[in-house]
């Protein structure tokens, strides 16, 4: 497809159809600013891929090359792009249901194999585009039309990523645009598999987990064992929420 | 001595010499080494061979056997009656004795029990002596494929038996190749950039073949976590302009279904090698059947273009793999190369000929999408655009159909003027060709399963008697032909015990 998008700084002229006030707007802005900043630093050749869900719409709103993939499959599509053209800086956008339900096999193997790419998970802890079912990070007891008796215990993706060997693990708060921008820049610069989970509210479904900013506190990259402990502080059921880079490591990448 | 002279005379009188040797033993004993060394010696001496491999899903133990079929004329099948048995264990004698012809010979592992690991070399030595093949050619082959250390065993085997046949050197220039090597060669000829596969019998041969050659020929092979990852990675790679192929068998192909449909919308070129085996489910995993034509034609939701091409032997597999790459990349389409265990793992002698290679175009994309999209790649739900895009997909298929006419979509074999028409496809080709050799039959081999050639109906209308031959339960090609031509073929020879046809059993049924 040719490029009609003449809007500056990675914007497109596609109509944005996220709900008004949705933190996806903020994630888009953080990413866009990160790309502008990286471009100024001489980093280019960006390519993206997305899963299917509310997050996926970002494909139409960012003017970079890419593939709007299948639900759960943003990671393998991204790995394929990187193997096809190793010069690309590939960013995969995915949702929480997308990555941790249908795509979990890819998530764990990306952590293990360390392809040089960035995964950004828009984690709103609910399947929104299909009207509110529970995802693997929905809180225990979350009642939905599909599970009237409530969801079971959630998983901890940060812990899974660390245990599976991810070489860059971070969590962001969608509302904190500057911090998210910085973490995304770091993630893209990191050589290897960078996992950035962005906590975001959904204003329509599963709103009981929203606005937890007061529980969040900033962290800096730490040693592996400490990172594992820190990851346990937030088990997707309340408590303190560490935000920032948990862990960074240099390791052989998939080629 | 009397027997020996008798057989020698027979060869001189007979138009076509044909021998079938069964080599059996436990998995891990090295029966493949016996047929490999002997077959390569035979090939160098100008003989045509076909080697059938029969093994259960067991790593060590059980019962495996090969049938090495030998001739002075072109053959591409094995027979059910044996001229000789090479037994690496007691079981082989017990199971196969009934298949041995009256004057047939047995080479028994008990004769060389002390040899241990080199037992199979000694058995090949004995076989080479019995066949009356050139000793030096055999010794060179042993040196090359096993090493000098095995020569003593080769000599011991050679000395142990009396010569029965006299296979003199012939002038044929031949190569020895299985279907997996052929598919890999076709991909290499097409200048493949990336091959993705998850291990699954009988497609794994191509994965191993390409993996071994990747660094020398500068393409990449990657084994991801599942066939779902395989297909999606391939589309990601294809997006960058890389020429990409994936390989699998039925179960893995099912897992790829959604991605194949994604191909239809994104128009990222993709070649899929589908080597089928006996299903449904895990089925009879190390055996062969032609039961996956239906999924090759229809897998993936929605309506989108594709070609499905089914070669009938390794030589065709080299060419048709190249045609798959050519068509997929020219028409941004899905191309399925449909084969099965019988072609993938059987070894064929093929005449040396340099194929014409079609150039494969490569194109990098800007925005590709699994959503319906506008011309810039931006998501749309506009009904007018939905119709426009659907019509464009049909148009693309029409253009591809036209292009396919440049290639051999069908082949006519046998007696060209016969009113008796056999229709078949894929791996049954070899057994059919050998079965109808001097019978009054014309054989129409279908290579392009989609699009289907218009010439099929013309040939059917010319025939008095039509027989459908397939290695499946429901006659899938028969149904496809009926859908396309309105003609039902009620005379069918279908075999579905998960074993391929032998040429003699088919001949009996056609006579």
Helix and strand layout, with pairings?
The complex is a heterodimer of chains A (255) and B (511).
Chain A lengths: L23 H17 L5 E5 L7 H4 L3 E4 L5 H11 L4 E7 H7 L1 H10 L3 E7 L33 H8 L3 E6 L3 H13 L3 E7 L16 E4 L4 H8 L9 E8 L7
Parallel strand pairs in A: 1-2, 1-3, 3-4, 4-6, 5-6, 7-8
Antiparallel strand pairs in A: 5-8
Helix pairs in contact in A: 1-7, 4-5, 5-6, 6-8
Chain B lengths: L1 H12 L4 E10 L3 H14 L3 E7 L6 E11 L10 E6 L2 H7 L3 E9 L10 H13 L3 H11 L5 H10 L13 E5 H11 L4 E4 L6 H14 L2 E3 L4 H13 L4 E5 L1 H17 L3 E7 L16 H6 L7 E4 L4 H17 L3 E7 H5 L1 E5 L15 E3 L13 H22 L5 E5 L5 E6 L2 H8 L6 E5 L1 E3 L4 H8 L2 E6 L5 H10 L6 E3 L8 H8 L1
Written overview of the protein:
- The complex is a heterodimer of chains A (255) and B (511).
- Chain A has helices at 24-40, 58-61, 74-84, 96-102, 104-113, 157-164, 177-189, 224-231; strands at residues 46-50, 65-68, 89-95, 117-123, 168-173, 193-199, 216-219, 241-248.
- Chain A is of the alpha/beta class and 255 residues long.
- In chain A, strands 2-1-3-4-6-5-8-7 form an eight-stranded mixed beta sheet, sandwiched between helices.
- In chain A, helix 1 crosses helix 7, helix 4 packs across helix 5 (104-113) and helix 5 (104-113) crosses helix 6 (157-164).
- The longest helix of chain A has 17 residues, at 24-40.
- The radius of gyration of chain A is 17 Å and the shape is globular.
- The model of chain A has no long low-confidence stretch (mean pLDDT 95).
- With 511 residues, chain B is α/β, with parallel strands linked by helices.
- Chain B folds into three domains: 2-172, Pyruvate-ferredoxin oxidoreductase, PFOR, domain III (Pyruvate-ferredoxin Oxidoreductase, domain 3, 3-Layer(aba) Sandwich), CATH 3.40.920; 177-404, Rossmann fold (3-Layer(aba) Sandwich), CATH 3.40.50; 410-510, 3-Layer(aba) Sandwich (Rossmann fold), CATH 3.40.50.920.
- Helix content of chain B is 40%, strand content 22%.
- Chain B has helices spanning 2-13, 31-44, 90-96, 119-131, 135-145, 151-160, 179-189, 204-217, 227-239, 250-266, 293-298, 314-330, 341-345, 383-404, 428-435, 455-462, 476-485, 503-510; strands at residues 18-27, 48-54, 61-71, 82-87, 100-108, 174-178, 194-197, 220-222, 244-248, 270-276, 306-309, 334-340, 347-351, 367-369, 410-414, 420-425, 442-446, 448-450, 465-470, 492-494.
- A seven-stranded mixed beta sheet of chain B has the order 5-4-1-3-2-13-6, sandwiched between helices.
- In chain B, helix 9 runs parallel beside helix 10 (250-266).
- Chain B is globular.
- At the A-B interface, strand 2, helix 3 and helix 5 of A face helix 9, helix 10 and strand 14 of B.
- Strand 2 (65-68) of chain A pairs parallel with strand 14 (367-369) of chain B, so a sheet runs across the interface.
């Amino acid at each position: 497809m040719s490029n009609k998008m003449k809007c500056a700084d990675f914007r497109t002229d596609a109509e944005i159809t996220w709900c008004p006030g949705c933190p996806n707007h903020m994630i888009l802005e953080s990413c866009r600013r990160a790309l502008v900043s990286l471009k100024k630093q001489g980093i280019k050749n960006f390519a993206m891929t997305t899963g299917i869900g509310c997050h996926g719409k970002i494909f139409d709103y960012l003017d970079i090359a890419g593939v709007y993939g299948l639900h759960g499959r943003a990671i393998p599509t991204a790995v394929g792009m990187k193997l096809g053209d190793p010069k690309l800086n590939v960013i995969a956008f995915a949702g929480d249901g997308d990555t941790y339900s249908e795509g979990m096999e890819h998530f764990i193997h990306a952590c293990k194999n360390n392809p040089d790419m960035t995964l950004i998970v828009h984690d709103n802890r609910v399947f929104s585009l299909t009207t509110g079912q529970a995802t693997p990070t929905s809180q225990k007891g979350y009642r939905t039309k599909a599970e009237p008796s409530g969801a079971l215990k959630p998983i901890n993706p940060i812990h899974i990523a660390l245990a599976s060997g991810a070489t860059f693990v971070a969590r962001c708060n969608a509302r904190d645009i500057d911090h998210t921008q910085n973490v995304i820049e770091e993630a893209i610069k990191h050589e290897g598999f960078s996992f950035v989970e962005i906590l975001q509210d959904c204003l329509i479904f599963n709103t009981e987990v929203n606005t937890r900013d007061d529980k969040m506190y900033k962290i800096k990259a730490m040693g592996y064992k400490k990172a594992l402990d820190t990851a346990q502080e937030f088990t997707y059921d309340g408590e303190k929420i560490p935000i920032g880079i948990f862990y960074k490591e240099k390791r052989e990448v998939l080629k | 001595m009397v027997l020996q002279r008798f057989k020698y005379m027979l060869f001189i009188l007979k138009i076509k010499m044909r021998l079938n040797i069964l080599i059996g033993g436990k998995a891990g004993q090295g029966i493949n080494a016996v047929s490999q060394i002997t077959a390569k010696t035979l090939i160098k001496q100008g003989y045509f061979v076909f080697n059938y491999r029969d093994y259960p899903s067991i790593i060590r133990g059980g019962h495996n056997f090969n049938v090495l079929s030998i001739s002075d004329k072109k053959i591409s099948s094995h027979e059910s009656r044996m001229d000789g048995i090479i037994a690496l264990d007691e079981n082989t004698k017990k199971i196969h004795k009934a298949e041995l012809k009256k004057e047939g010979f047995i080479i028994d592992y008990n004769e060389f029990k002390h040899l241990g690991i080199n037992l199979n070399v000694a058995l090949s030595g004995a076989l080479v002596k019995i066949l009356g093949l050139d000793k030096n050619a055999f010794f060179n082959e042993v040196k090359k494929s096993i090493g000098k250390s095995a020569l003593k065993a080769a000599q011991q085997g050679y000395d142990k038996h009396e010569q029965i046949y006299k296979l003199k050197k012939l002038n044929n220039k031949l190569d020895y190749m299985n279907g997996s090597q052929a598919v890999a060669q076709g991909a290499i000829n097409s200048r493949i950039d990336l091959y993705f596969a998850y291990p699954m019998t009988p497609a794994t041969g191509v994965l191993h073949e390409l993996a071994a050659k990747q660094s020398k020929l500068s393409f990449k092979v990657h084994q991801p976590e599942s066939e779902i990852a395989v297909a999606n990675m391939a589309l990601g790679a294809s997006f960058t302009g890389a020429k990409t192929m994936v390989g699998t068998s039925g179960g893995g192909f099912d897992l790829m279904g959604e991605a194949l449909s994604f191909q239809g919308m994104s128009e990222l070129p993709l070649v899929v090698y589908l080597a089928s085996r006996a299903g449904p489910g895990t089925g009879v995993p190390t055996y062969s059947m032609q039961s996956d034509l239906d999924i090759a034609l229809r897998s993936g939701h929605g309506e989108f273009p594709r070609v499905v091409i089914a070669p009938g032997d390794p030589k065709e597999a080299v060419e048709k793999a190249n045609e798959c790459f050519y068509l997929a990349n020219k028409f941004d389409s899905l191309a399925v190369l449909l084969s099965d265990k019988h072609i993938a793992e059987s070894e064929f002698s093929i005449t040396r000929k340099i194929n014409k290679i079609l150039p494969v175009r490569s194109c990098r994309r800007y925005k590709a999408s699994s959503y319906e999209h506008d011309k810039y790649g931006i998501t749309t739900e506009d009904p007018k655009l939905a119709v426009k895009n659907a019509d464009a997909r049909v148009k693309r298929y029409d253009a591809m159909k036209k292009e396919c006419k440049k290639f051999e979509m069908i082949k006519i074999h046998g007696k060209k003027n016969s009113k008796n028409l056999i229709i078949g496809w894929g791996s049954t080709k070899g057994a059919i060709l050998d079965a109808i050799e001097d019978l009054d039959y014309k054989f129409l081999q279908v290579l392009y399963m989609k699009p289907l050639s218009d010439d099929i109906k013309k040939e059917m209308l010319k025939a008095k008697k039509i027989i459908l031959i397939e290695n499946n339960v429901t006659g899938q090609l028969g149904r496809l032909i009926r859908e396309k031509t309105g003609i039902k073929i009620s005379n069918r020879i279908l075999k579905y015990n998960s074993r391929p046809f032998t040429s003699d059993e088919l001949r009996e049924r056609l006579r």
